[in-house]
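Render this sequence as a predicted structure.
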Amino acid sequence: MENNSSQESTRKSGNALVHQKTWTDYLWIIREHWILALVVALAASGFYAYKKMQQVPLYKSIAILLYEPERERVINIQSVVDSPLGNATEYVLRNHLTDLRSNSFRERIVESLTTSERELITKDYQDPESGEEANIGGIISGSNKISLIGGNIFKFEFDHRNPQAAALLANRFSEEFLDFLLERSRRANDAALRFLRSQSEELKLKVERSELAVQQYRQERNLVSLEDSQNLIVERMKNISSALNSARLEKLSLSANLKEIEEAGDDIDKLSSLPVINQMGSLPEKFEQRRALLASRHTMSLRYGPRHPKMVENAANLETVESYIRDAIDKNVSDFKQQYATMETRVGNLEEALKKAEADSLDLDQIAIEYNVLRRKLETDQRLFTQVHQRLNEAILASQLSDTNLRIVDRAWPAPRPFSPDKPKIYATSIILFLVLFGGVPFAIQYLNLNLKTASDIEEQLQIPFLGEIRKFPRKFRDLHRLVLDQTHQEGVELFRQIHSQILLKAKQLQPGHTFVITSALPKEGKSFFAINLAASFARHHYKTLLVDCDFRRPTIGPRMKEIFEEKSKEKVEEGQAIVINEKLDILPINVGTVEATELIESKSFKDALSQFQSMYDIVIIDTPPAGIFPDAGLIGNYAHHFLFMTQINKHRKGALKGILNRLEQSKAEILGLVVNRVSRSKSRNLGAYRYADYRKYKNYYPQKVSVNE
């Protein structure tokens, strides 16, 4: 037999329907375990209330201290000793809280207590049998709850069996802490004052020594006014430098003129072109006279010869003028040279004077450096002395003022009634505990149990549809395998109708010869009982049905249907021949079992016989051995369309059933769904099946006698 591809893909992908739980499902979980939940809830809540009510009464007293970051003062004076992080409020409060919780401060409190106060604190904690006195340090340590609230408020909360003792401890802690801060501040102030006084005396001596050193230095170097001396030297250097620059410029000018005259030599024409020569006395007139004589001579030379009297006269005049010019130039050049020598000497003298002034300035600067070092040291010593002396005066005044930012806002008073045990709170907690346990224990039992319990477990964990349930029938009912055939129990018959309807809905469309393989995880789970009644249900719905017993190892259908076989078949039935039960139902039993089951299933004769049955009948139902033990169901599934899996509720682990179903999925047949057998009425609610628990209310709806063929 071959299955179509759509069935194959459907089987591999799975068609499980997810069961959605409702609030009624959760109510039935509680109903199933309500007795155990009630016992546990009553025991736990009662024990809690009993233990809490047995506690010794405790009284609570509270004292409040306020921290004020900004204190009011008559004048603005800093504290004698500042904290390492300044006046940061967070830092100060954290340090105060650490001091309050320290063992040393607790010991201070114990030492401050008088004998009567000690007796008041310890008398309620003495051992009544031995009379041994309680440890007062342990009592104080275990009863105090010192905390910081609101950012700057210290809360001293004390619990004690005696209300007067609780108030005493709260007030003593707050008062002693104020005294502790004042004492610590005074000790720090005294140390600071001693340090400031010693520093003031030491700085005073340093100032005196520095003043003496400055005065002695001025006397040794005859320094009346260092600033005036420095100004005079600077002014002298400016004058010398200005004169030196002028002399150097004049010397440079004379040198340039002499060089031009030397380059012109005796050439009167070149000399006449020099600006310095043209500016000398009457030389410009002589140069003009010479040019006129030369021009006249040139004109006369065109008319007269060199011996002509006019030419001779012109030559004599020209010689006289040139002689004058040369004498004048020689005289002026001699004057230039004399001026150059004089200027050179002046430049040298000025340079020497400037060097001397610079040396004097350097000497004075060195004196000024040494003098300024001494003067700055004196100023530093004077400034430090002034600051320390001022701080000392402020510290003396500040030490006489209150040096604490804390003040008691609210003193502790004895409590009129105990706060523990808190009866309303105990009762409320007990009720809440009872409700939580009463509601939680059933769910804990339900969900910690790894067995299958509900329809949602079946569909979510196993990923296969839940087809329906079969109730656990009373012992008075016998021949349950003939339940549908004989219509003996209408509620049970209705359950099989429901399963039959679910099979039709899941299978969508039944083909001629549609074959169902029925199996279970373990023996005695009711698969044969289910197979017989399911076959009868299909027959009553007008399907030509064949029930085949393929449990070759331990045949079951034959022995159960022996009586009906004898009634229906008067003649001897041969092996392998179906017995006709009615017009629509035939059953093929096995009379003798065999251990060679797998060989028989894989034989050609088995395949041919099953193929022939599928061609003759509308529905073929095959009963097989448990799939959790034997492979027969899986092998037969290769020739069938669907598996119908039979199990019992709360009997198998989910993982075990999942493994069996995974093996069945390797066959060609699809797992159509799971049916649960032997379900009690209380468990039926968990399964979420159709509710027939109140069938007796509606039994008159059905006729008392029903025809088999109706």
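Summary. The mean pLDDT is 80. Residues 309-398 form the longest helix (90 residues).
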